[in-house]
Amino acid sequence: MINPFLAGMNKRSTKDLKQVIAESQKYTAEAIEAALVVLKERQVEVDLPIVATQPLSEQKAVRKKKGFRFLRHYVRFILHPDVHAIEAGLIGKTMIALRFYAVSILLYLPLVYLLPLLAKIPGVSFPTSKPIFPGESLNQLDLIMFVMVMPPLVGLVEEFAFRLFLDRFNKKYAYISLSMICSYFIINTFAMLLYPDYFEGTGITGQLLFTFIMLGAFSAIIYIALSNSPTVTKFLENIWETDFKKVFYLSAIIFAVSHLRNYDWEPQSFILLPVVLFPYFNYAFLFSLLRIRLGIVYAISIHALVDLIAVLIFVSKMS
């Protein structure tokens, strides 16, 4: 089987490859193996990690004993985020994306068993989920259109806003994401505080489309302002080069916190804030991993799949 990391390692500088070997605890065995192959082709000698010096048969035996390879990769990525991409074909990347999605569900399972215990705590109540759309404005055609349009559109917008920039610094990607994040909070503030009934009389699909048209308009204005500021570009590039880890975690925090508006909060509910936020952080890390390792298309696709499942569950409960 072709090493999926080989093509990506070929694009790296010798200095970067030596760094991979030096920090082998942050990378999978396949990534280290690919780095060694490329360095050997370039006739560069390095001190090999312990795993790499073992006979191939022993390495395979170790890998068989160590299960949950994707789970370890997922956790390692969360603790030590980097911008290394996996090179593979369409089918290979699709299978990798689905496996990481399965890992995220696995991490969520303990919370499912914890929820009934938390519900028994005196004086504690779960925040109530807000409905996706008001029942009185529902008709069958509008509902079908919403189910078809909402998951891919929300997946596209949220991935561009919260994760498009998660790569080596690209000022266009950074400006697109920053402008969309700013627009996202401007529109939600407008909807919740200034004019809460401005959607009255429109269908749910119309509400969705109008919201994203407004998001695009505000984003374009902010993007133009940002792109004409060399100072901002230099500032952002410096952050990417020195504190990418902070950028990574900040994107996850903003994504998770932005979803708190999906609930009606009461004072006795705030103690459960970490429980409510956990799934959103889990998805933030999953989508970030897919965006960096496989590309933005795979992050959008899995995000759309997650939203589609959520919408279908909601609709099935209504019916």
Commentary on this structure:
The protein has 319 residues and is mainly α. It folds into 2 domains: 6-66, no CATH class; 90-318, no CATH class. The protein is 70% helix and 1% strand. It is built from 14 helices and 2 strands; from the N terminus they run H-H-H-H-H-H-H-E-H-H-H-H-H-E-H-H. The chain has helices at 6-10, 14-22, 29-41, 50-53, 56-65, 69-79, 90-118, 140-162, 171-194, 204-227, 230-242, 244-258, 273-293, 296-318; strands at 128-129, 263-264. Strands 1-2 form a two-stranded antiparallel sheet. Helix 8 (140-162) packs across helix 9. The longest helix has 29 residues, at 90-118. It is globular, with a radius of gyration of 22 Å. It starts with 5 loop residues before the first helix and ends with a helix. Mean pLDDT is 81; it is low at 50-56. InterPro entries: Rce1/LyrA-like_dom (IPR003675). Keywords: Hydrolase, Membrane, Protease, Transmembrane, Transmembrane helix. Residues 143-309 form the CAAX prenyl protease 2/Lysostaphin resistance protein A-like domain. GO terms for molecular function: peptidase activity. This is CPBP family glutamic-type intramembrane protease.
Summary tags:
319 residues; mainly alpha; 70% helix; globular
